[in-house]
Amino acid sequence: MDLKDYIRSIPDFPKKGILFYDISTLLAHPDAWQVALGRLARMTMHFQPEILAGIESRGFLVSSPLASRIGLGSTMIRKKGKLPGDTIEYKYDLEYGTDTIEIQADAIKQGQRVVVLDDLLATGGTMAASINLLNQVGAEVVGVVCMIELSFLNGREKLGGVPFNSLMSYDE
């Protein structure tokens, strides 16, 4: 099954000049979604993780059902102020400013093997920040898995050598 057949392209979203790759059409198709989860499970298990970490917000749509399918727990990496309890934050630079992400302080055990998941890898800034945050809390980030990679943006180069896999890649 060619999963690209289930991805909708939306021009000029969220702003003019951007072509947005929308996974909601794949999620809505039960057979395509099951195939995607099966392929993601194989990619993810290759890294032998102990827990999955999904990045806000579409990463949660990938990490939670995948964790359930392969018998692992899942945790969330969110924007500042969105998680209850004690959190650990990581501030990172954007093209025009900064942003901050957080994880709950007790979400990851020291040395725990983590695979980070998101729907899409574009420039790699948020993914790199997530890897740095997980390293900061003592995790061993063993891999990154996404549904889509926009390879022309070279995001994987920012991942600090962490192995990366995706279901689909778009070259422009």
Q: What is the C-level CATH assignment?
A: Alpha Beta
Label the CATH architecture: 3-Layer(aba) Sandwich
What class do helices, strands and sheet pairing give?
alpha/beta
Outline, from the CA principal axes?
globular
The helix-strand sequence is: EEHHEHEEEEHEE
Strand order of the largest sheet: 5-6-4-3-7-8-9
The average pLDDT value, as a whole number, equals 97
What does it look like?
With 172 residues, the chain is α/β, with parallel strands linked by helices. The chain has 4 helices and 9 strands, in the order ββααβαββββαββ. The chain has a single domain (7-170), classed as 3-Layer(aba) Sandwich (Rossmann fold), CATH 3.40.50. β7 (113-121), α4 and β8 form a beta-alpha-beta unit. It is globular and about 40 Å long. The two termini are 22 Å apart.
